[in-house]
Amino acid sequence: MNAESFLQQRLLCITSVDRVEDAVPLAEALLAGGLKVMEITFRTAAAAESIQRIRQHVPQMNIGAGTLLSPEQVQRAMDVGAQFGVSPGLNEAVLAAAAKNRMPFFPGVMTPTEVDHALNLGWKHLKFFPAEPAGGVAMIKALAGPFAHTGVKFVPTGSINAASLPNYLALPQVAAVGGSWMAERKLVSEKAWAKITALTAEAIKVISTTPAKS
Question: Environment class of residue 92 by beta-carbon count within 10 Å: exposed (0-12), middle (13-18) or buried (19+)?
């Protein structure tokens, strides 16, 4: 699958898992809410095994690995079955490892220089991070001007919530929105699966009523 295929629902759930046993119920809760793509960050010791369990037991879920900061983490993510990777920044060694493994990848950018560099390296689907602190919708609009002809698409992530979701979805330069509000770490640790399903369903409903622009 290519990078675009993981963005078709226009929403990417980003979550951290502290206990491996929570991984499968979490994936099932997101699926129950209508979402088929999620990213587990490599910020906890449980991340790799969580991804592996989801691939084994919830095959309907498209699962990626986030916060990949080294080539070794890229390889580890591939080894446990991650279908795509995400990084908070633009690390050439990480991107080289992803390219070598033919791993769909969303590198993080925040400035025009970083967007330009990512495009020159051959990456067109970019995580815009941290979205809200970096200027949010207005910043993406500003970046779109000089780069619109390149085909670049952004996946804004960082402090986005249900209320701001429609504002990002309305931008033609936004392929999908990354968010953690529907599966925050606290909700996962509390095993609040019904709440996660409800928040996910609400987000999917917003997306269904916000037409994509080209």
Answer: exposed
